[in-house]
Design goal:
It contains 17 helices and no strands. By secondary structure, the protein is mainly alpha-helical.
């Protein structure tokens, strides 16, 4: 599949068109699955149309490693579509061929998670609730076994964090924070992990701790305008309007065209500093007027075409006045 390796995500549209014209063309099907796999694109609908057909009709014509890659791909797509029987069938074949594999153990854990997710909506039924709890425990057992053998396995560590957070209770959220701290001790430059930590603290209304995590995010991803925006909002909530103003401004510097949230934040910050009167530093006052005008104009430009019946019209009118 050397040709597939040269494909880029934008080629998927042409390949889909070719597949619709020739739905039994095995070469096109292999290219589509390879493209999705190599670029980590999630199209479970396509995978479940193509993968089982290839495994049935062309398994003997493909390298063995490609066959097992496709089986894993089909398993993941089946989980996305809640086709758990299909996922179990592929998992059984992977377990038989790769006994003791930590990767397959991780897939088993994800299947248990999916089973818990399917039944949790009917948790009012005690029996179904017990089944959900059992599936969650089995998933956690799989990830714990992986970490026992490979303490630095990032997949298992992240899945445990996701499971704790999904439970939503204060106790589970504290466990998620604990697990994230353990992860960050090993991988302190993972910006996504710091971002997850910040989101958990924000959910718990622990703004000071969220600010610390967001500072790490900004340091690790300095060109992401959303990171600057979220840090600015945390600082504004804590009353540090002068510092918040800097991060709102930087967010707008990185994305001035589609960033009305930062523009409105800049208006609010400059207004708050202006309201402080004599308590505000001379430097803050000198910067305040031009920054206020900049933020105000960006908000007005963003909502220039807003109709009176739209909720955003009131925001634009308040800023204009």
């Amino acid at each position: 599949l050397a040709m597939a390796e040269a494909l880029v995500p934008s080629d998927l549209t042409d390949l889909e068109s070719a597949y619709r014209k020739s739905p039994t063309d095995i070469n096109i099907q292999q290219k589509i699955l390879s493209l999705l796999r190599l670029n980590r694109m999630r199209r479970p609908d396509l995978v479940m149309k193509i993968g089982p057909y290839l495994l049935k009709k062309a398994r003997g014509r493909m390298p063995s490693n490609t066959v097992w890659d496709i089986r894993e791909q089909v398993l993941m797509a089946a989980l996305d579509l809640h086709r758990l029987e299909d996922a179990q069938m592929e998992l059984t074949k992977l377990q038989k061929n790769f006994p003791g594999s930590l990767r397959v153990k991780g897939l088993e854990g994800m299947l248990h998670e999916a089973r818990a997710g399917v039944v949790v909506q009917s948790a009012a039924n005690p029996t179904i609730a017990q089944n959900a709890g059992r599936s969650n425990r089995e998933a956690m057992r799989c990830y714990s076994e992986i970490l026992k053998e490979d303490p630095c396995n990032t997949f298992a560590m992240k899945r445990r964090i996701c499971m704790f957070r999904a439970q939503g209770s204060p106790e589970a959220m504290n466990e998620a924070i604990k697990a994230l701290n353990e992860y960050l001790l090993l991988f302190p430059t993972d910006a996504d992990a710091w971002r997850e930590m910040a989101d958990i603290y924000l959910d718990l209304q622990q703004i000071e701790q969220a600010k610390f995590a967001l500072e790490e995010v900004v340091m690790l991803s300095p060109i992401n305008y959303v990171s600057h925006l979220k840090l600015a909002e945390a600082l504004y909530t804590l009353g540090d309007h002068s510092t918040a103003r800097k991060y709102y401004s930087q967010s707008l510097e990185l994305n001035p065209d589609q960033n009305a949230r930062a523009a409105l934040g800049l208006v609010l910050c400059t207004t708050a500093i202006n309201s402080a009167g004599s308590r505000a530093r001379a430097e803050d006052k000198a910067l305040n007027a031009p920054l206020y005008q900049c933020g105000r104009q960006l908000v007005l430009d963003h909502y220039a075409d807003t109709r009176p019946e739209e909720p955003a019209f009131a925001t634009a009118a308040a800023v204009k006045s």
